[in-house]
Every structure is written in structure tokens, then in C-alpha cells.
Design goal:
By secondary structure, the protein is mostly beta strands. The chain contains one helix and eight strands.
């Protein structure tokens, strides 16, 4: 099975930072990474296992600097890392995954509101999964009847689009623009009930209007 996904996740984070300071964004998680250190004891050394958490996922670091002519000197470092269990290390029966990372580093000069894009961080991998019935799947020759294999091929590319803006303090006469909240495409219960009552009133008025007759009458059957 082959899958090709160019833009799997579309996110629009807004990060604020000051001149010369680094801001970072991470969409992913952290996994435990044990490390072994040796401490001297009375007759030798005793190993001590400590656990550290390492981040992985889509990470973006950038450092802006305002130039003398009002431009933005922006240093950008995008990085994409995933857990790689194939090249992991087994320690005391626990599998510690490795990190498969893709990283880029660039520096551009932009004006306020100008945009630039970084692409080319491509990840092409093939994952083969084997499922088998315990014990029966390990029998030579006959074990092929009790196992199944599936192959998954993925091809992903990360596209980073950045638009820097200069944020200035507001004066006392200016008013902050509030965010536009999303408009619900379904009516609320109150609006739905009001619409039903309005439709009921219109139907009743139409029925009463059709029952009344104003004008000359024709032939009527005697009662």
C-alpha cells in the first residue's frame, strides 16, 4: 500500500518575541530516554539509571533582529523528528527508539508583512509489519499459513510558511481589535425553537385566511 501525503497537518501558530530573542514552537511530544552513569562506591562503581525526556515532532526556532532601516533579519531553524524503533537500542529488556530527524537552517531579511517559505524536508520510508499466530507462526514452512505481512510506504514533505510582523504599542486613543469568533453553521436550540414557533404561527395564520371567504357565494347545498 502506497500513500503520498504532502500536507498532512496545517497549523498557523502565532509566536511573539522581542528583538534578538529566540522563540520556539513544538508540535509533537516527549519520550523517556534512560542514561546510565557510574558513581564510585567503597569497593568499585555502582551504575545509576536516570531518565531524561527528549522532544520529538515538528519544531521551529527563529530569532528576529531589527535592522537599522526597519527590516527584519530572521534566523529560522525548522526540524522534524520521528521515533525510529528499527534502529533502537534494547536496554534491560526495554526498547529505546532512535530519532530520525530532518533539519534546515537559514537566514533571510524581510519587511513587515512579507512572507517566505521553506520546503524540501522530505521523509520517504517503507514500513513492513508481520502479524502471526503465537507458536504456530514460528513453525518452519507451515508457519507461513499462520502469518501475514503488510507493507506501508509513506512520503511526506514539510512546508514552512512564515510571515513576520512588527508589533508596536498602542496609543491611548487606539482600540484593540477583538478576534473574530467562528460562526456556527448549525442553529442553536433557542434559534431552532424560535423558528419552529414562527413557522407554526405562519401556518396557523395561513389556515385561518384560507377558511375565511369574502365575496359573492355560489350554490350551497341545504342543511
Amino acid at each position: 500500500m502506497e500513500e503520498r501525503d504532502i500536507s498532512q497537518i496545517l497549523a498557523e501558530p502565532t509566536l511573539l518575541t522581542v528583538d534578538g530573542k529566540t522563540a520556539s514552537f513544538l508540535a509533537g511530544g516527549q519520550f523517556p530516554f534512560p542514561t546510565i552513569t557510574a558513581t564510585p562506591t567503597g569497593g568499585g562503581t555502582a551504575p545509576i539509571v536516570t531518565v531524561q525526556f527528549k522532544p520529538y515532532g515538528v519544531q521551529l526556532d527563529f530569532t528576529p533582529t531589527i535592522t537599522a532601516n526597519g527590516m527584519i533579519d530572521l534566523k529560522v531553524t525548522p526540524e522534524v523528528s520521528t521515533l525510529d524503533f528499527t534502529n533502537g537500542v534494547t536496554l534491560d529488556g526495554f526498547l529505546i527508539p532512535a530519532l530520525d530527524s530532518r533539519k534546515a537552517d537559514t537566514e533571510v531579511i524581510l519587511g513587515d508583512g512579507e512572507s517566505f517559505a521553506i520546503a524540501g524536508l522530505i521523509d520517504d520510508r517503507v514500513i513492513q509489519t508481520i502479524d502471526k499466530v503465537p507458536w504456530l507462526g514460528d513453525i518452519p514452512i507451515l508457519g507461513q499459513l499462520f502469518r501475514s505481512a503488510s507493507t506501508k510506504k509513506t512520503n511526506t514533505e514539510l512546508l514552512v510558511l512564515i510571515t513576520p510582523h512588527l508589533v508596536k504599542p498602542m496609543t491611548k486613543d487606539e482600540k484593540a481589535k477583538l478576534p473574530d469568533y467562528p460562526v456556527s453553521f448549525l442553529p442553536s436550540n433557542t434559534e431552532l425553537k424560535a423558528a419552529q414557533e414562527e413557522n407554526g404561527k405562519k401556518a396557523a395564520a395561513k389556515k385561518m385566511k384560507s377558511a375565511d371567504f369574502d365575496g359573492p357565494r355560489g350554490h350551497e347545498d341545504p342543511q
